């Protein structure tokens, strides 16, 4: 019984940590993706 409660508690905490981490990292990942796309666009303009 205690083991089941502990497992449920840990799963809940793990889910909360993952959600918070996604919220914190997402803006930075979007900036990296945008920077990569801009950089690729600049390279394509130089080649043409």
Gap between N and C termini, in Å? 68 Å
Give the helix level as a range of percent: over 70%
The radius of gyration is 21 Å
Order of SSEs: H
From the spread of the alpha carbons, the general shape counts as rod-shaped
Number of beta strands: 0
Largest sheet: none
On the 0 to 100 scale, the average pLDDT is: 89
Structural class: mainly alpha
User: Helix count, per DSSP?
Assistant: 1
What does this 3D model show about the protein?
With 48 residues, the chain is mainly α. Helices cover 96% and strands 0% of the residues. The chain contains one helix and no strands. The chain has one helix at 2-47. It is rod-shaped, with a radius of gyration of 21 Å. The protein starts with a helix and ends with a helix.
Offer a concise description of the structure.
This protein is mainly alpha-helical. Helix content is about 95%, strand content about 0%. The longest helix has about 45 residues.
List the helices and strands and how they pair.
Blueprint: H1 2-47
